[in-house]
Amino acid sequence: MAVLHRHGGSRYAALLTIxxxxxxxxxxxxxxxxxxxxxxxxxxxxxxLPWHSFIAHLASYEANMAVYYLALRPWLLIGSxxxxxRALSVVLSLLAVVALYVLTTRLFGxxxxxxxxxxxxxxxxxxxxxxxxxxxGLYILLSVLTSLVFCTAVERPTGRRWTLYAFLGAxxxxxxxxxxxxxxxxxxxxxxxxxxxxxxxWVMASGVLLTVLLLPAVLFVLLRDVGQVSLLGRPGVSSVxxxxxxxxxxxxxxxxxxxxxAVAVVxxxxxxxxxxPASESxxxxxxxxxxxxxxxxxxxxxxISFVRPTLAFRYLLGSVPPLGALAAVGLARLGLVMGTTCxxxxxxxxxxVLKARYEGRAxxxxxxxxxxxxxxxxxxDAVFIFAGHARPGFEYYSSRYGDGGPPIVYPQSVLAPVxxxxxAHQDLVRQTLERxxxxxxxxxxxxxxxxxxxxxxxxxxxxxxxxxxxxxxSYRAVQEHRFRxxxxxxxxxx
Length: 494
Hints:
By secondary structure, the protein is α/β, with parallel strands linked by helices. It has helices at residues 3-6, 8-32, 38-47, 51-62, 66-75, 82-108, 110-122, 124-129, 136-155, 159-173, 179-189, 200-223, 239-248, 254-270, 281-307, 320-333, 336-358, 366-376, 391-400, 423-435, 455-471, and strands at residues 381-386, 408-410, 442-448, 475-483, 486-493. Strand 1 (381-386), helix 19 (391-400) and strand 2 form a beta-alpha-beta unit.
C-alpha cells in the first residue's frame, strides 16, 4: 500500500476499482427484488403530488424526509419503474463511498481512506438500505459531507466554513431527524481538542444558526405526531449492541469490526495520541471525533427511547461511516496477510447476511399481490386494504398494470397518515365494513405484514382478525393467497 503514497494515480485507480465493485454489488442487490415495499411506494406517491399538495403533506406529516422527497421529484421525470426509482439511492450511496474516502484520507491518510471506502462498499447494511427508495442513502451521504465540512472548519476555522456547516447540518437533519444526534456528537468531540484550541466564536455562532434552522423540525416533532413511530417497541439493555450489529452489516460481522476498532484505539494509545500534549491535541481529537460520531447517537437514541419508544436501528445509519472509518484505521495498522483476511472475512459475512435478508420476510411483494387482484377482479368487486398506510404499494402497481380495477373502499386516501390504531381508527374500519354488504358482491381483503410473531405488528394482526370475522358474517372466504409480506383474501357474498 505504500506505493499509493508515491503515485497519486494509483490511489485514484484503487478508488475507482472500489467504486466499481460497490456499483456491481449494489446493482446485483437491486435486481434481486423488483417489487417496491410500502414505504418505497409511499416515497413515489408523495414525490408525485402536485406542488401545493406536496408542500402541505410534508408540513403536516412527512417533514422527516423532506429533502429526499425534494430530490426524488425531479428524478422521477426520468421514469417511475422500480429500478429507476431505486437508482437515485444507489447513486447517492456510491457517492458516500467516495466522500468517506475523502474524509478518512484527510484525517488519517490515503491508506486508511481507501480501506474505509472498501469497508463501506462491502457493508451489508449500507448495501441494503442504500438501495431502497427511501432517504437512507442520502442520509448517510450528507452525514459524511457534513462531517467533512465540520473537520475542515475545526482545523481551518473561518466564518464561511462554520456557516456552511450549519446550513449543511440543517439540510442533513431535514433528510432524517436522527441526524441531529450526529450534529450533537460533532460538537461533543470538541472537548478532546482542548478548550484553548476550540474556535469558540464560530462554534457558538454556528450553534445558534443551526438551532434557528432546526426550530421548525422541533415544532413538527412536538405538534405533528400522528403515530409515525407508534409501532416501535421499547429498547432493552442490549440495544446498543444491536445497533452496532446493524451498523456493522449484521451480528456476524460485529466481532470483526470490534477487533479492528480496538486495534485502532490501542494503536493510538501506544503511539501516545490519547495522552498527547495540548500542542498535538488535533491528533487526539481526530480519534475522538470518530468515536463520538459512532457512539453518541446510539447511546442518546437508546436513552430517549426508554422514555418514549422512537428507535428503529435503521434511523442510526448516519453512524455507519464512522464505524467503517475507525475500523479502517485499525485495518491500516495490520500486516498484509491479516488485513486481507479481515477484508475477505467481511466480504463473506456480508454476502451471508444479504442472502439471509433476501430470503426473509422484510420485502413485500406488492407486484404479484396487485397483479392477482387486477387480473381476477370482476365488476362489482371492492378492495379493502389493511393497514391503511399500505395503500401506496397497491396503488403503485395498480397504475402500472392499467386502470379500471376494482374501487378501494378503505383507506379512502392513497396517503393515510394515521398509523396509530386508536379506537377512532378502529371505529372507521368497522363502519366501512358495515357498509359493504349489499353494495359489493365480492371483497378483496389485502393485508400488509399480517403476522402475529412480532410485537410491533401483533395489534395490527389482532385487528385484521376482527376484519375477517366481520366480513364472514355477510361473506364467505373463497380464496387466500400469501405473498411475501402481503396476504390477499377474496370474500364472496353468501
